[in-house]
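Protein Record: Sequence and Backbone Structure Tokens
======================================================
Tokens: labelled as protein backbone structure tokens, with as many entries as the chain has residues.
Task: work out the structure tokens from the sequence, keeping to the layout shown below.
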Amino acid sequence: MERNSNFTENQLLLSSAQLQEQLDQQKALASVIVRIRESLDLETIFQTTATEVRLLLNADRVAVFQFDLDKDWEGEFVSEDVAPGWTSALQVKVYDHCFGEQFASSYQKGRVQAVADIYNAGLSDCHAAILSKFQVKANLVVPLSRQKELWGLLCIHQCSEARDWKESEIGFIRQIADHLDVAIQQAKHLHEVQLQAAKLAQAVQRDQVIAQIVDKIRLHLDIETIFKTTTQEIRKLLEADRVAIFSFDADWSGNFVAESFAEGWTPLVGIQSAMSTTGYAYADTYLQQTQGGRYLDNQTFTANDIYQAGLTDSHVTLLEQFQAKSFATAPILQGDQLWGVIAAYQNTSPRQWQSYEVESLTKIGTQIGVAVQHHKLLAYAQYQAEQQKTLTSVITRIRESLDLDTIFQTTVTEARKMLQADRVAVFRFDPQKDWEGEFISEDVVAECNSVIAEKIYDYCFSENFATLYAQGRVNAIADIFQRKFQACYIQILEKLQVRANLVAPLLKKGELWGLLCIHQCNAPRDWQPSEIEFASQIAQQLGVALKQDSYLKQVQMQIVQLAEATEREKAMERQKLLAATIDKIRQSLDIKTIFRTTTQAVRELLEVERVAIYRFNSDWSGKFVADSFKDAWKPLAHTQPMTIETFEDTDDDNELPRNETFVPIRQGEKLWGLLVAYQNSQPRYWKEEEINLLAQVAVQFGIAIQQAELLEQTKRQTLELTQTLQELKQTQSRLIQGEKMAGLGKLIAGVAHEINNPVGFIFGNLIHLDKYTQELLNVVNLYRQNSSLLPSVQDQIDKTDLDFLIEDLPKTLESMKVGTERICDIVLSLRNFSRTDEAEFKAVDIHEGLDSTLLILGHRLKNNNERPAIEIVKEYANLNLLECYPAQLNQVFMNLISNSIDALEEKFQTIQQRYLNLSQMCPIIPLTIWISTQATNNQVVIRIADNGLGIPEEVRSHMFDPFFTTKAPGKGTGLGLSISYQIIVEKHHGQIKCSSKPGEGTEFLIEIPSSN
């Protein structure tokens, strides 16, 4: 009984110890599981596990061994917990060459190796040697797997002595390994998630950087700036040694046009073509042979190591000259055309180019292609603008000058600069010879010979070109040797050094007058359609100049003929005036009357600016005693006595232009004085008949003086009394006349004012009445043409003397117009006579000007078949009279209100057409013009607004420029707002502004100082 009791007690003690051991193991296992769940850091989990397991199993070392997946079962201990006195196994590289043969397969199947004594377990020598290296005597190894692959080992070492491993310990370690497998799997997932997150973050950052680069590209219009910015930014993004942009030429060679490179590398920009042997010791002609190669298909090309990428020897040699060891390239497409390549180079060493880096390079290449396309479009637009500017300049010169040589020289100079040609010349045919002619004007570069006055005769011209040129055809030849021309034509062009030729005909009144020739001498040239059109327009304008010159010559010939006839009439008139002058001189014996009559009559007779009488004293000094002169010249009479230097009268004097001519006045045999005629503004060639006429007047004047002095000696006292009485009568007459004129001026001013308003109304409406009458007559004629369709209309026409009405009505209107113009002239003469409107700048009521303008435009404000009536809203403030130029200010009102009416008509037509296109009923469209005035800050403010479609900003900024108009040809000159601007700003020192909102309307604001 006692023995059985002891046995039972021992069993209980053993069971209690096992339970305690299992409890400790479960606690340790739970602790490991908690640590695994609490931490995602694999090193912390391993360290915690090793510590807990070593303490629990009372082992000398617990370590985690990890295999290197890239090497054959080589690895190292990554975590351990070791008892004091034993060597650490951390970071020791372990390679067991016989591991794969003995254990790998078993470990991959999850088997556990428990070795109680390494020297008695039958291990291989190499395996035992490795364990001895770590002082191991007993070994317990459990595999650690990740997704069914052997990741590493959980090793429990007993270094002090051999040890029999219990099943519970092995089971416990299995459980620990299972949870470590979970931790390893979690760590892998976490690492993958973190790696993916990092990649996403990098992708976002790259996209942001690329977006910033794209913004910088779009920020500039200058292509050089875009290239520079792009290469700098992409090199920073990719951290490359060099980023460069390569542009292809037409033959698929090319050049580097931009680059950014790190310090110490040789630049590539500026050297000769990378595809020609002149730029490098070796050249790669692959792209020339394939005409763009893979880049045409929008493919990229990368080489992580140029020596391992299978490149041709010539390509490798070329890259060595670029100092490159690795590169990545992407195409730059301009629309569908391959423009060039953007390349990133790594010069220091080979480089593994990532897909996202190549993708970034591709995105930037796409944006560069867009920028290049925009640059091309902008350059083309600028070129067209320059063409229009040159054409406008030529047209302006033609209008400014009537000299044909000046027009030709200006045109060829401007055209050559615009087209960048070698020569632009004007060729004129000799009308007396069969298609022979010469160059009469040219502008040529220094490298080409001049062809001025070069006689040209092309006997085959009439066969090939004359008919086409006469029809206005333009001939464009890109290369004279690439087309089948006759030998005579090639010979002529070679003589002129011409390789490419653009010829436009010059037509004068429908006949071929000459040719406008544009030559390219140094090389062939493909003439662009815009250049051909430009040459055609220039030729048309020169045709206008030729027509003007023809008209000018006709006018000049008529002027000469008219001048000759006028001169003959003047000669006859002079004789009549001479006879009348002599008669006047003889009729009077009053010396002053004779002076006045003589000087005035002679000035009118010779059409000079001054005629004076100079009288000598006894000492041959003298003074001017009488003169007659035009306005703005000072009188010479009553000046201080003066002495005239001795002079000699020669026959040659009259051949030179002089400011004066004179003849002697003799009183009997005595020299009494001089009769002098002056032309003060400029020298004048005095004609012989003018001097003879002056001499005849001087003779008669001398006789009259002699008679007057004889009579004066006998009747001096009577003459003095008569003169005194005459002066009194003259004074009385002037006083009475002054009063009469003052009263008459007031009367005339009143009458002119009362007549002017109705006459102005009649005259203003006669213009519209004439226009309306013409339109009505056109309608009547149209009815007559279609009278067969309307019998009732034909009956009415038969009853009415319609032919007489059609013939007489325009005559009646013209008579009314002539009569109204005559009345206006009479009223204007009366106003000038009364001098109430002498100064054009005066104080007026601007409301009257606005109302009169609205009255004139009243016919346009009414409703018609095309639109409803336009409503006028007036908001006039109580203003003082404004000092201004009324007529000019009314012109401004007319321009602005007319433009508002045009804008409202356009609005109505646009909206109505929109609803017609939609087949919907058009609603009522309000058409309104607001006119308001106010006085603020010593200024009068006038606002004229409408509710039209508004003015776009690009139009509003140019609307005050001369000749700028958005109206259809023939409906506007582009001068109305420009003239209005000059009137307000320059004449009145005010301001005119325009504000507009598209779709809402436009307002013009005029500010004029109250005191100008």
Residues 137 and 544 are 117 Å apart (CA to CA). The chain has 23 helices and 28 strands. The chain has a mean pLDDT of 78.
